[in-house]
Amino acid sequence: MSLLERRISHASLIGFAWPTILSYVFVNIYFIIDGIFVSQALGTSALAAVNIVMPVFGVTLALATMIGTGGSALVASLIGEGKLREARGGFSLLVLFCLVSSGLLCVLGLLWQEPLLRLLGAEAGVYELCRAYLQPLLIATPLILAGMVLDNFFVVEGRPRFSMCSVILGGTVNVLLDYLFLFVWGMGIEGAALATSIGYSLSVLIGLGYFGIWRKGTLRLVTPVKNWQIVTKSMSNGMSEIVVMLAGSVIIIVMNRTLMELVGEDGVAAASIIQYTEELLAAVYLGYAEGIAPLMSYRQGTGEWKEVRRIYECSLHIISVFAAVTFLMSFMIAGPLIAAFAGNVSAVYEMAVHGFHIFAVSFLFMGFNTYSSSLFTALNDGRTSALLSGWHSICFLVCLLLLPRVLGLNGVWIAQPVAELLALLMAINCFKQRGFLNGPSRKNSRGIRTA
Fold it and tell me: What predicted TM-score, i.e. pTM, was given to this entire model?
């Protein structure tokens, strides 16, 4: 029996999602180790430079997530409908599209480096560090993006462990190269960027090997279908993911500029450390939401709407437990983790610990918002998913622009908890409108809606 066809229960959902959860957790552990190495080897100015450049990496991640989640939902639904040939051709077209589009991003980024860095807020003190970190990431963009997209389709294939192993291998190589490039060979911040680029690029080799050479699974690389509606539909369906990622990049830029005005480089470094910690804990939510999304899409394709609702109900129970555990864990790991970056007697440490204790309230709401957006993407309702993501991003940006004017530095830390609460209220309203809270009265191939 395929993993996609197993009986739905709390245990089976966690069993299906755990490789994806671990993948996201490992990715963020590697990011943290990368940040610690940069901070310890090169100082907090280099760490601030990495955070300033991060929105560029966020654009790559946004495009990969849009194609990967939107496309995997569409392909899984086609498999559920029995349209295997169309699913394979569409999958191959999406891989081709991501290579071409990421190549274009690479060229444009290299041509317009200086205005791009100025836009990101790279001031004189960190400009050269930012430029040195940016170039290797831009050059590796096609490989990084293709690897991320292929990892999404391992879950559709019913082999989430392959995705997990790919991520673990890439991350381990990243950490080892970080140590060699920074501490042994003294390559500076360019070495950190090169290590990240090589580590992420390994995923594309594993994906192409499985889907393009081994070719014995359900999905395989074939001649792409000449149907660009598959691309546009995947992009439309994954629009919420790119809204989140692109808005996140804008938010980081605004936050960095605000912190530079309020407290200077130390504030940006403190925010960087808080973001590393937040992303580690939030990885559980994101991994679960992305991990079970193909189950929703597949059951939608087969027309098993009772099972779709069962997945939804079980997921709310699971995320409630995750929320409580994550909130409590955040207070236990914040101090030691922040100290690993900045020591425990520095101004950056004090600022980051204080900010994180305020910020941690957002973990109580974050998981529900992440799952809500992913659920509608899985049901091919990209419009609602984008609405939720867009509303969350707008709330966060407005809070970030207004609250620091009233509360100073504390306003920066309070912005996300307030935005998460407002986003949760919108998600509850969307669930009510589409019958998830009261029971659907009409079902179609694009989601659950009330008549």
Answer: 0.71
Residue 239 has pLDDT above 80, yes or no: no
Q: Which of 341, 214, 216, 219 is nearest to 275 (CA)?
A: 341
Read off the pLDDT of residues 359-400 as tens digits, 9 standing for 90 and up. Answer: 899 999 999 998 988 888 888 787 888 888 889 989 999 999
Write phi, then psi, for 264 (nearest 5 degrees). Answer: 85, -160
Token duo for residue 357 = 């204790």
CA distance 181 to 87: 42
Domain residue spans in the chain? Answer: 3-449
- Phi first, then psi, for residue 444 (nearest 5°) are -140, -175
DSSP assignment of 143-181: HHHHHHHHHHHHHHTT-HHHHHHHHHHHHHHHHHHHHII
241: which 2 tokens? 């993911």
CA angle 168, 181, 206 (to 5 degrees): 30
257-284 burial, b if ≥16 CB within 10 A, otherwise e? ebbbeebebbbbbbbbbbbbbbbbbbbb
